[in-house]
Amino acid sequence: MTSLPGDEGAGEAAEPLVCARCGTRAEGAQPTWTCSLENGVRQYFCDTCSRENLRSIEGRLDSAWW
Fold first, then answer.
1. Which of 19, 20, 54, 65 has CB atoms 3.0–4.6 Å from 61's, for a disulfide?
2. pLDDT in tens, 3-54
3. Is residue 30 one of the residues assigned to a domain?
């Protein structure tokens, strides 16, 4: 089963997401950030870092994704 930000069990305090590139902390419960699974580790990237690196992100996708 895949878990997403905010899917933690009821009553548990979820830690805010931190951008893996710039260190920005998410504000609010469900930010619109990019999630990447790299070497089995889930990493999140803020909107700004995602936009600034979009070509690099797309360049790593198999052609079936675009």
1. 65
2. 555 555 544 557 889 999 999 999 887 778 999 888 899 999 999 999 998 8
3. yes
